[in-house]
Amino acid sequence: MARGSKPIWLLRSGYVPGTGPSVIFNTPPAGGWQMIFVDPAHYGDVPGVVDVDKYSFDDTFYVDGGYAYGGFDLSLRKSVGQGRMLYADIGGVRYEQSLRGSTAVLLKLEECWTRMSGWTTRPNKAPTRAFK
Question: What is the pTM of this model?
Fold first, then answer.
């Protein structure tokens, strides 16, 4: 495996280095999932699109502090987990990302979130699942 090709873990976030700024997969403390891109060019709500292989997902990203935050729903996570390449366009800023290792990244984030949140079977704390 080439240097820099292993996933890098950041608390409840992870990313796999790609060409240009890499996408960050994030599970915020409240649960759920986000995709985060470095975006110093915009502020506020910015339209964007994420393409994974043959699938396309439109979203409005919220850009603040140099980062663009977008949704990462179950259908997109499944596509990322099974996909080969991710292409994104956020307000004209383009990203290209290999998805090699992304399934492992998402499953590890699920595991870390569960461990850090103290999730139990109690109904008041729903788990954050990668692919369910």
Answer: 0.77
